[in-house]
Every structure is written in C-alpha cells, then in structure tokens.
Amino acid sequence: MIDLNRRGLVFAAGSAITISAVGLPVLAATPGRKLGYAIVGLGGYGLGVIIPQFKNCQHSKLVALVSGDPVKAKRVAAEYGVPERSIYDYKNFDSIKDNPDIDIVYVCLPVSMHAEYTIRAAAAGKHVMCEKPMAVSSAECEAMIAACKKAGKKLMIGYRCHFEAYNLEAVRRARAGEIGKLRYFRSEHGFTTGNPNAWRLKKAMSGGGSLMDIGIYALNAARYMTGEEPIAVYAKETTDRNDPRFREVEDMIEFQLEFPSGVIGSCMSMYSANQNHVLLVGDKGRIDMEPGTRYDGNKLWVGQDRSNPITPPPGPGATQWAGQLDHLSLCIINNKEPIVAGEEGLRDIRIIEAVYRSAREQKRIALV
Amino acid sequence: MIDLNRRGLVFAAGSAITISAVGLPVLAATPGRKLGYAIVGLGGYGLGVIIPQFKNCQHSKLVALVSGDPVKAKRVAAEYGVPERSIYDYKNFDSIKDNPDIDIVYVCLPVSMHAEYTIRAAAAGKHVMCEKPMAVSSAECEAMIAACKKAGKKLMIGYRCHFEAYNLEAVRRARAGEIGKLRYFRSEHGFTTGNPNAWRLKKAMSGGGSLMDIGIYALNAARYMTGEEPIAVYAKETTDRNDPRFREVEDMIEFQLEFPSGVIGSCMSMYSANQNHVLLVGDKGRIDMEPGTRYDGNKLWVGQDRSNPITPPPGPGATQWAGQLDHLSLCIINNKEPIVAGEEGLRDIRIIEAVYRSAREQKRIALV
C-alpha cells in the first residue's frame, strides 16, 4: 500500500502541480463504483488502444462513443455494449450534457481538435481526459485549463508512461539515489512514418511533426526521470522538404535541455528512423530503458551496463492504460488533482514551442 | 588483401587529407624491416600501454627511451633490451639526431608538451607519432605540422581507434549502406576521474578537461562514423567548480554537431560518470557499439536492436596499437601520408576550440 503512494509522490517530484497519489487504500474504499467514459474519435488510438482497455479497469467503463462515422460507431457500440442512444457525432456532441452516464470525455482526436472538444466537454459538465500533445499551442492549453477550471471539472492529459511499470520503477530508483548524483539524461524517440496523407503530417491538424507526436515522450521522460524542469533549450532540425512526408512538418529534431541542477538532457525526435531509448546517468551508475516507452516489451537495466535486467513490480493498473483511466476516475471520486493534469501538458507544449523557436532561430532559448 | 585496402579507403572518407591505404601487399613486400621508435614519456600510456605493444608489431621496434626519471628509464631499458646509450632525458633530447637507430619519436607526454617535443623531434630529423589530443591549441597544431613538413618528416596522431577492428567494421558497414541513409550519430565518453592532482586536471598541462582527454573519442568517432566534417557546433558545459577535481578544467560537456548532409551528431564528454558508447542511426537500422572505443572488450551490434552481435574480422595489426605503430612505419617505408596525419589532429582541436567557445558564449558556432 505504501509502495503505490510513494510512487505517486516520487513520480511527480519536480512538478508544480498538486500531487495526488493513487494508493491502494483509495482503491479499496471504492470497489464497486465505475465512472463512465465517452470516447471521442474512433481512430487508431481511441478504437484500437483505449476502448479495449476498459475490461482491465476497476473504476472506469465505456458508456458512450463520439464519431463522424455512424456505421463504425454502431458497430463498435454493439461490440462493447454501448447503447445506441449514447452514440454521438460532432454536431450533436454538446448534448452529452444530458447524458448522466457520461462522467468523463476522453478526447482521442487529431491535435488541432483537442482544445475545441475539451472546452465543449467541460461546458457540458464533463471531466476530460485529453490525449497528448495537449494542443497545437500553449495558448490553447491555457484556454483548456481555464475552461475546465471554470466548469469545476478535472482535466487530465493522456501521459500513459506515468502509469507504466518500467517507467515507475526507473523513477523510483532514480529518486532513491541508486545511481548517485544525476549527471545527464538522454532519450531518442522515433519511428519511420509512412503514409504522406496521415493527419499527423498535416500541420494544421497535428501542430507539428515528430516532436509533437513521438519526441514528446523523450521530453516528458526528461522531466519525470530527472524530476526537474528545464531552464533553457537548444535545438537543431533536419527535414528533407522534398520528401512528400515532410512538406509541412519536421522530420528530425535534436534538442538539448539545461536543468537547474546542472543535469544536461539530450533528446532526439524522428519520423525517419526507429528508436525508443531512455537513459539516465548518475555518478554511480545508470538507469537504461530500451525500449523504454512502448505499449509493451519495455526493458530496464540498472547499474554500470546491461548486465542487471530489472523486472519491475506491477504498476497501479493491470496495464498502463488501465492505470491511466482509473487514475482520473479516482481523482474525480476523491476530488484530487491528476498527477498529469492540464498543467503538465501545458508545460510540455511551452517547451516544445521553445524547441521549435530555437531550431528556427539557431539559438539558445531560455525558458521563463 | 582487398579488405584492408578498402578499409583504409572507407575509414578516411570525408577527410581532406591524402588517403593512403595500408594493405597486405605492402606488408608482404617488406617483411624484414622494422623501424625504430623512441618513446618519449614513461607515464601510464607510454610505459603501460605502448611499450608492451612492440612485441605485436611487424614493422616497428622499440629502440630508445626519453624520460626525466633515470632510474625508471634504466629499468625499462633493461626489461625491453634498449641499450643504455639510447636512454635520453629532456635536456639531451635533441642529441637523438645522432642516433641512427631512431626513425620515429612517439610523444607520450602531457598535452602541453606535445608541440615542443614534436617540433624538436622533427628538427632532429625524426618522424613523429604524437598522442592525442594533438596539442593545447590549433595554433600549436599548425606549428607542429609546419615543423614536420619543413623537416620532410611524417607526423601521425595516435588515433588508435582507426586501427581497431570493431570500429573499422562499423565504418565499413556504414559506408556499405547497411543501415540506409544516415540520420544521426550519438556518443557518450566519460569516466570518473579520481586524483585531483593528476596532470589531466591541470589546465596548463592538459589544455582542457574531459573533452580533451576522453570526449575527443566521441568527436573523432562522429567524424569517422559519418564520414563527414561538422559545419557548426553547440555546447553546454556543467562543472562543479567546488569539486577539487574541477577547479581548472571542465567536467561535463555536451555538444551537438551539424553535418552538411543533415546528419545530427550529439556527443557527451564527462569526468564524473562512466560511459563508452558509439551509435550511428540510419533510416534502415543502426550500428551500435558499447563499449565502443575501449582497449579491449568492445562490442558491436548492427540492425534494429542488439539482437545481432557482430564479431569483426581482424584489424590491420595484431592489436589496435600494433596496427597504429606499424601504419606509421609503413607510411615512412612507402612514403605515404598516414590516414591520421597532423591535419586530422588539427581538425579535432579546431572543433574542440569551437565547442569550448560555444559553451562559454552559449551560442551556435559555425565552423569555417
């Protein structure tokens, strides 16, 4: 019981947000209650990844769908036992306010639509889980936070790694001093993107390229692994604008983060090569994860090299997504702030904006 | 026979220096001749590492010693069969000009003494092998190159990794296109330095901290692995000046290299943590070495991850040092330029100067 509480605390160290640990005492106190989620967007992530996870949840259930494709929505509703009256489209979305089954709206849409649907959901009196990146700009993030605050509703960003067993164990060991004084952090996140017509490659819908999509994992890991907030960034971008995939968004961007303690972070984001690596080096050893932030198959080594593979204790949920979904449900039940609230998403977007500016201006950007 | 020639060629690709491949045909043509080396400096590297390597050489032999410690010199001479008349100190060093046994002077001294002893050796009519880093400044490097040129003598810098089997195999595979189009390079090199009184930590003797000593491996690898010369650098330094080890020189410095093709290099140099890693990522896979540049025990993987460990074919010598020592001997015998001539050392020092300047001024420095 202590373990999960400690984890919640250590994981969010360095965050300015209110820290609310999800602990077994809370879980034990509310065994029967499940809050209802409406999934907005039946694309690859919402339909393929999130919806199948409700079966692993203790405090969350699927109760509604929002989609522009009525045939698909009807099929999914039938498969997952969602009543037809709880299927919405983007026109009648606001009428969710009249559906008491829906406690939480999970926004799984292209990034450009996050702000609109978060704000509309809050206005409809619903709590919101919004996928990362939070929005296409920090101004939008601020508007989302303000809207949820005004409505008195929780806002959480879908940072699944904060509920993933290997990452939790890595953070726990870093905070416990197992690798000594932290010296530097490094992460590469990239994959080879294919279809040039994907919405992720359209700047108006995605807000940016690999950094918004996959590099954000490196950035977020830099913050949770070190437990610090960067004070300056420097970035270099390489994009072949003749490549049809990269007419609008960046391919590859390398950014260096300066942390107040002197720890240096170095992160690579790519749409043209496959990498998934998280490394934290201290003066006594290192914490190494490769892959580090995948859906599954993550690996962790602690020590001088890879001779000591670690199998972490279970995370707070049966899966990282179950942990994530139930965390928001429990925060609502217990009136606590999520450990990855809107402020966490805003923080990443502000740094991402500075990274883009640094790459554009070829200079160091101090973060205020 | 083809293999070694090809290696010599591919390894030096991207260099502006004259390329001279060391091949078996040359070795076969001169089986009996061994050139004589004088080792200057009987410290850890000269005495502990280089001198024991002559037994592995085909074209090089130990014929003279230069040391400020006559007792030590006499003992080493006796052990390795060097005649007493071929023991010198720093005062009578220039009289090596009268010793026909000495073909090559190997300068294994603190960095601040490299220029003086290289120039004096050339003036004495000897070829020179000089340890890396070449000198404390690019101005000194230029003077060393000019002195050897004026004397009509070869100058080679002790870049042992250019003769190390794993690194040669890594370069060969990169040039052969095994990982596709190159995207980025990364290397960390560091170790935990101990004794605050070591000459390496005295700026007047070392010219700088971890970057001059160990980070230069990352920099040099960035150049030989990509086969490109950087066009700009950006660097961030972290040094605790209250640590007695780091009163004069830097501890940790992270530098980013921009290459003309768009490849991005990211290198970390440290005196406060142990790392030895070389990674080259392409759009079809990666070449991964960890450790990558050690005296022995290096490892190499090629592919998507570490599932495919590579055992490379033998390098050009029985060991990386034998390959290095014999390379200069053969270049002299065949009147070819070393693949790591003075110009190679100068190139690294110029980049190192730009890295230091970037860290100092917190801005991107273009390399001219």
UniProtKB/TrEMBL annotation, chains A, B:
Any GO molecular function: oxidoreductase activity
Lineage top rank: taxon: Bacteria
Signal peptide extent: none
Residue ranges occupied by any Gfo/Idh/MocA-like oxidoreductase C-terminal domain in the UniProt entry: 176-367
InterPro entries xrefs: Gfo/Idh/MocA-like_OxRdtase_C (IPR004104), Gfo/Idh/MocA-like_OxRdtase_N (IPR000683), Gfo/Idh/MocA_oxidrdct_glycsds (IPR050463), Glc-Fru_OxRdtase_bac (IPR008354), NAD(P)-bd_dom_sf (IPR036291)
Keyword line: Oxidoreductase
TM region(s), chain numbering: none
Domain called Gfo/Idh/MocA-like oxidoreductase N-terminal: residue spans: 36-159
Annotated PANTHER family: BCDNA.GH03377
Protein name: Gfo/Idh/MocA family oxidoreductase
Organism of provenance: Duganella flavida
The organism's taxonomic lineage, starting at the top: Bacteria, Pseudomonadati, Pseudomonadota, Betaproteobacteria, Burkholderiales
